[in-house]
């Protein structure tokens, strides 16, 4: 199964409505099918506002290679950190038991 990556397009400057419509039409034409695009207005009056378009695209082969290369190292690092914290706290996590929970008062 291929992963999907969230991509962003920022539109900072637009001087006229026609230019903005042309830019948005260009972006829409370049979007992949099933992109699930969203348009948001970001920013404030002090730093300025910008239009932000986010959409999903399929992960490239290069991105998949990089992720595969670092996935094992990341998993090992998380396991080492968990083991270190468990040793420090003296707590071991167990999988929950299946079945009914009985409350005794």
Describe the structure.
The chain is α+β, with helices and mostly antiparallel strands and 105 residues long. It folds into 2 domains: 4-58; 60-91. It has helices spanning 17-30, 61-89; strands at residues 4-11, 38-44, 48-58. Strands 1-3-2 form a 3-stranded antiparallel beta sheet, with no helix packed on it. The longest helix is centred in the C-terminal third of the chain and has 29 residues, at 61-89. The mean pLDDT is 80.
Number of contiguous helices: 2
Structural class: alpha+beta
Outline type: elongated
What is the rounded distance between the termini? 49 Å
Helical residue percent band: 40-55%
Global mean pLDDT: 80
Number of strands: 3
Radius of gyration over all CA atoms, rounded? 24 Å
Number of separate structural domains: 2
Order of strands across the main sheet = 1-3-2
Report the sheet with the most strands, covering strand number, pairing sense and barrel closure: 3 strands, antiparallel
Poorly predicted runs of 5 or more residues: none
Order of helices and strands: EHEEH
Any key phrases for this structure?
105 residues; elongated; alpha+beta; three-stranded antiparallel sheet
Provide a short characterization of the protein structure.
The chain has about 100 residues and is an alpha+beta fold. The protein has helices spanning about 15-30, 60-90, and strands spanning about 5-10, 40-45, 50-60.
What order do the helices and strands come in, and which of them pair?
Elements: E1 4-11, H1 17-30, E2 38-44, E3 48-58, H2 61-89
Antiparallel strand pairs: 1-3, 2-3
């Amino acid at each position: 199964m291929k992963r999907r990556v969230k991509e962003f397009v920022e539109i900072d400057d637009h001087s006229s409505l026609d230019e903005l419509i042309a830019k948005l039409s260009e972006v829409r034409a370049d979007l992949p099918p099933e992109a699930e695009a969203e348009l948001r207005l970001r920013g404030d009056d002090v730093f300025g506002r910008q239009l932000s378009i986010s959409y999903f695209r399929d992960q490239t082969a290069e991105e998949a290679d990089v992720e595969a290369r670092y996935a094992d190292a990341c998993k090992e690092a998380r396991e080492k950190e968990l083991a270190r914290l468990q040793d420090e706290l003296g707590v071991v996590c167990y999988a929950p038991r299946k079945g009914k929970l009985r409350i005794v008062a």
